[in-house]
Design a protein that fits this description.
Number of strands: 0
Number of helices: 5
Radius of gyration: 16 Å
Largest sheet: none
Low-confidence stretches: none
Helix content: over 70%
Oligomer: single chain
Shape: elongated
């Protein structure tokens, strides 16, 4: 499952790299907006590489909040944050189900 988490974070980073172009078209691109989006994209790439670490899932979960908070820069990011957040939570749910199946022997 760490590959699914890493792919989700990598796609979020790619999405963030498109934000400065959108903000620039609206005329609201500032140095702070650019630094936040590019910095968070870099953090997401690093976290994607760290998903095999014991703390990787928790750090990725915190990054979901930060990704959604970029909606204050571009309102559409609130929607994308909700979509990626759903994918993240669903992946955690699937991981728990898989662990529960392997922990209990099949009956029959």
């Amino acid at each position: 499952m760490s590959g699914v988490y890493a792919a989700t974070l990598a796609l979020e980073a790619l999405t963030l790299l498109l934000v400065p172009r959108t903000v620039a078209q609206d005329g609201g691109l500032t140095g702070a907006n650019l630094a936040v989006t590019l910095g968070l994209a870099g953090v997401l790439v690093v976290l994607a590489a760290m998903q095999r670490r014991p703390w990787g899932l928790a750090a990725g979960s915190v990054a979901q909040v930060a990704f959604t908070a970029t909606g204050f820069i571009v309102a559409a990011m609130f929607f994308l944050g909700a979509v990626f957040g759903f994918i993240w939570l669903y992946s955690i749910h699937v991981q728990r189900e898989l662990r529960a199946r392997t922990a209990s022997p099949p009956t029959g």
